[in-house]
Amino acid sequence: MLHLGDLKKAASAAPARSRGRGAEPMPDWPARFVELAAAARDTRLQAFYAAGAVAGDSALKDVPMVAIDVETTGLDPARDEIVSIGLVPMDAACIRSSASRYWVVRPHAELRPESVTIHAITHAQIEAAPDFGAIVGELLAALAGRVVVVHCREIERRFLDVALKARLGEGIEFPVIDTMALEARLHRAPHPGFFARLFGKKPAPVSIRLADSRERYKLPRYRAHHALTDALATAELLQAQVAHRFAPETPLRELWC
């Protein structure tokens, strides 16, 4: 993942926010996928939606998932693009590393030196890579029928939506389990006591960046900013969160967004 003092870093110490009165209601994802399948024009998107969405009352232990990470030329989907994608099929108990996928794709936007420093994908690699549009079918097939797992949904969901709109003329919607949002929820700062308020003391913020979150569960450190490695790291983090904080029978709707 691209962290660069970025959106993820900005969110990493922020308090978690629950769905308040003014928040948009959670879609009925199975019903929404039926609508989207009927409305989609591209056959690859039609097939993705036709595979259906997992019901929100499904127990976590029964939910097929896929962890995904993207590396980008920057942080603004309006002007930056995806340069690599990694994904790993998984569920709450098993990570299928042998079925993982990794693509380097050629963006229309120029690579900026600062982003190359982060993700280490070079101009030579980009020149030899296919356009994102060439791998759309494989990507959607790998995501179909599974709940997508990410660490900071604002990156993966927005960049994939914009990339599909640019190539297919229509975007994409899908539910996600966001391990960053879960970590924010699990480590929400406690309400300060009387004396803390009296003396203006605030609890130290807890970092919810991927590496720091993994460290709390005694997970090993991996090389950051490689899409496939970060996807694997996200998959392992979710499994640790589920093992420590949730029951196998927990309904999916309590985690996804």
Automatic annotation (TrEMBL):
Exonuclease domain: residues covered: 64-247
Coiled-coil stretches noted in the UniProt entry, renumbered to this chain: none
Matching Pfam families: RNase_T
Annotated InterPro entries: Ribonucl_H, RNaseH-like_sf, RNaseH_sf
Single GO MF descriptor: nucleic acid binding
GO biological process entries: DNA metabolic process
NCBIfam families reported for this sequence: PRK09146.1
Protein name according to UniProt: 3'-5' exonuclease
Natural source organism: Thauera aminoaromatica
